């Protein structure tokens, strides 16, 4: 039977996801700035700052528990070619993160590791707020049409 995965392994998997998210948001932010969509670019900057804070919290906790944080791994990114596909790609990424953090909370509870659970819940709540924002943007595109929406994010 495979050895049971520890919360440190889970935190390292999440760390890889966080680095991937940071880089995807960075790429999208620069594309949006180039296209002149400053308001949306500005919001993505806030997401990047949150993701960096998630990395910091996970790293500190991994080190505290005697593990080694994975600092040089990343997954393939999905860079959107236009505003809508960027938002869809980021939504996909955040949806996966929310699921992983929820599973991670369950694991920390099962291992009676409340300190790690606290980190997971903190990050989870912020991923949910990122996801809510992205979903709201996509809903606005559906409701008002892409042309009108684009005029609101300049
Ligand atoms: Fe994050
Ligand atoms: Fe996020």
CATH architecture: Up-down Bundle
Mean pLDDT: 96
The proportion of residues forming helix, as a percent range, comes to over 70%
What letter string, H or E per element, gives the SSE order? HHHHH
> Biggest sheet, in brief?
none
Structural class: mainly alpha
Globular, elongated, flat, extended or rod-shaped: what is the shape? elongated
CATH topology call: Ferritin
Separation of termini? 55 Å
> How many distinct folded domains?
1
Give the low-pLDDT segments.
none
List the ions, cofactors and other small molecules found in this model.
fe (ii) ion
* Percent strand: under 5%
Q: Please name the fourth-level CATH homologous superfamily.
A: Ferritin, core subunit, four-helix bundle
Gyration radius (Cα, Å) is 17 Å
Can you give a write-up of this model?
α1 runs antiparallel to α2 and α4 crosses α5. The mean pLDDT is 96. The chain is an all-alpha fold and 154 residues long. It has five helices and no strands. It is elongated. The termini are far apart. The protein is 79% helix and 0% strand. The protein has one domain: Up-down Bundle (Ferritin), CATH 1.20.1260. The longest helix is centred in the C-terminal third of the chain and has 31 residues. One fe (ii) ion (FE2) binds next to α1, α2 and α4.
């Amino acid at each position: 039977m495979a050895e049971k995965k520890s919360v440190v392994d889970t935190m390292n998997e999440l760390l890889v996801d966080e680095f991937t998210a940071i880089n995807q948001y960075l790429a999208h932010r620069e594309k949006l700035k180039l296209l002149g969509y400053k308001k949306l670019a500005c919001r993505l900057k806030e997401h990047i700052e949150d993701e960096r804070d998630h990395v910091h919290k996970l790293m500190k906790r991994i080190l505290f528990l005697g593990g080694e944080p994975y600092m040089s791994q990343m997954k393939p990114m999905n860079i959107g070619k236009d505003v809508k596909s960027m938002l869809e790609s980021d939504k996909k990424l955040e949806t996966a993160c929310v699921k992983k953090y929820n599973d991670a909370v369950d694991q920390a509870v099962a291992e009676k590791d409340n300190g790690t659970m606290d980190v997971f819940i903190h990050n989870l709540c912020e991923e949910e707020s990122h996801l809510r924002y992205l979903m709201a943007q996509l809903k606005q595109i559906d409701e008002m049409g892409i042309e009108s929406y684009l005029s609101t994010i300049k």
